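From the pipeline queue, job 12 of 40. The input is one protein chain; the requested action is below.

Action: predict structure.
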Amino acid sequence: MNRLKTIISLLAIVSLSFGNCKPANKDEKISDLVLYYLLFLALANGAEENCTFSPSSSDPLYGDEWHLKNIGQFGGTVGEDANVSPLWDQDISGNRVIVSVVDDGLDIKHEDLAPNISVTARGLNLLNGTIYPTHSYSDSFHGSAVGGVIAARGGNSLGVRGAAPCSKLVGVNILEKSTIYTSDEYRAMVNESARVSISNNSWGSPDKYGWLWPSSSLWQQGVNEGITKGKSGKGTVYVWAAGNGANGGTIASPVLVDNANYDGQANYYGVMAIGGIGQNGKKAAYSESGANLWVVAHTQGNDASVDTAAISTTDATGANGLNVGGSFGDYSLGNYTKKFNGTSSATPLAAGAIALLIGKYPDLTWRDVRELVAYSARKNDASDIGWALNNAGLNINHKYGFGAVDAVSLLTKASTWTPITSGLITYTATALSPNTAIPDNDLTTGATVNYNVSAPISYIEYIDVEFTSNHTYFPELRIEITSPGGTKSVLSEPHGCINPYNNSLCASGNTSIASMTGSSTYRFGVARHLGESPNGTWVLKVFDASATDTGQINAVQLRIYGR
């Protein structure tokens, strides 16, 4: 009787919380009563629904989802996909793994998402202060498209299926706010983190500016709490879109603008930055490279001159969202779209593969997961000249990180994985202040700083490079760092730049690190040295690509995460 009273009380509270929700409209097939019924079952049983999924069952648009199974249906390379379907055949579907979709909302009544909306983790709407994360604006769709890539319900004879078709979603609506405060960022990172295995973030700093965007201390605090306390102490896994701002020109005539390392969220040690490759396995022209890039996953790419097939997924229900019903060659049914793209769609594909992993091996920590993703990644676009081996024997490429997410390889690697049991050590080396002049208009000699490290770490998990310079035009600098083992990482390259505050070209003499960020120090992140030893001499080199603007390397400091 006491348990029944508790359940009834909780239902009453939740009903009041849902009182701010929009009423169901005629296009919505999932009513509030259905949601309450599912919630009642969850409260009564204290668990998510035990989903069953038959890979041979019907999802009418599944044949268009080349990113899940590429048979060349749109002219792509056969087998160039996330390789998830063989796992479905083994009854691995991400069952009960909760994934947070931090975005512009989530259509929790969508016919193909509602069965996989978490009923134990509460949503968060930072726009209206409720637990109901559904989109408030008619043109919002992004979070629902992301959710579909991860967890559209499989085998229900509706629409599409997600990479992890039995995983569960909880929405956080942050992007519909006109002003996002650092406290909002914090709340988005920690919402229901005790239950959330994966936090998907298909958002970040503005694209195509070539500007530096440091992350806030409150956001960092949220991620730190998630990786230490999330998922019942195993740590929430944060995946982050690398960004779509690489190319400021055309596919045929590209102009380098953004690097994923200019985004202080995508380059943070607690997240995995995800880039994008197309159906041919090559980098999408817009996808940002970077020494912080962890892996890549499939999304709309391009050939030599035109875009190729995009991603089919869920859209906001009815005439809302991206597809208003057959618009611009899209599906006639407005609940779905075949126009989703960007690293925004690559990131949830990686999240879906990770959900399959955690569903099979739930005791993995966030550190286990990120290393498994790296060690199992497939060397895509194998002829690209950017591929190298780091000193620990891992394939690395500034375009692709450690390679492409491959779900079968990921779980195969996990089957023989020795869990990481040693604690994470964070070692901050002594700062150097050389005040070394950077030769002007010189891409040959440059300025060099030798940096000796003797740390209580033998295995690098991640590196921060804090770089301080008074150079008056940062976008013309090339910054490289080479490890004691000989692995070179490029932190910044000469690139195009637009001032986001006046939308004009960045000004010579007035585009220093300080003028962009408010501080003369910027933190770069480096993933490429995974598994190496940090001890010995690191070599930092800085080159200046153009005349007139000058400056110095004022200070350098390394922070090493490892064991």
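Job complete. The CA atoms of residues 477 and 544 lie 5 Å apart.
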